[in-house]
Amino acid sequence: MNARDLSFVHVFRPAERPGSPPVLLLHGTGGDETDLLPLGAAAAPGAALLSPRGQVLERGAPRFFRRLAEGVFDEEDVRRRAGDLARFVAEARAAYGIGAPVALGYSNGANIAAATLLLHPEALAGAALLRPLAVLGDPPRARLDGRPVLNLSGVADPIAPPDSVTALEAALTASGAQVTRETLFASHGLTRDDLVSAQAWFVGRVAAG
Q: How many domains, in total, are found in the chain?
């Protein structure tokens, strides 16, 4: 498949360091395919970067799935869009000759990454979830077989309540993921501590295998 024929508008940057797992960058609400490129390059130096743009528009702002209100999600659309993202990953792997990527997602991007892990575990080799929460009311029991997951929450985050973050962690752990959870002194926005933690996790848990 030619890269121009892929189902998502995206950016792809080839790997500069052989052996580094590719990274799937998933932006937050209102972002695009360029938003997380600097973060991805800094967190996983030398890795191939695959960064799609969300296909849902909320008052003109790109997202990866619909929501009905703040914190109220269209679960049917979540499931549909997770399938779309999994198919895009398969297309990109064929087009660019890369392995299964590790997702690095922020906010809405973290949520679609977690949903894709649970609904389509074959699509991702792991995920770094920055400010995620649970968006599946009845998550499936997937077979994640020890895949690494980083969960970075903000202690003062008004959008991702602790009980929802804990519910997501429980669903991932029940499916066999190896979850590392850190609560940072932060709100919903990203801080330098997110980069430091993500870098350490990519080196210690992903690159080391």
A: 1
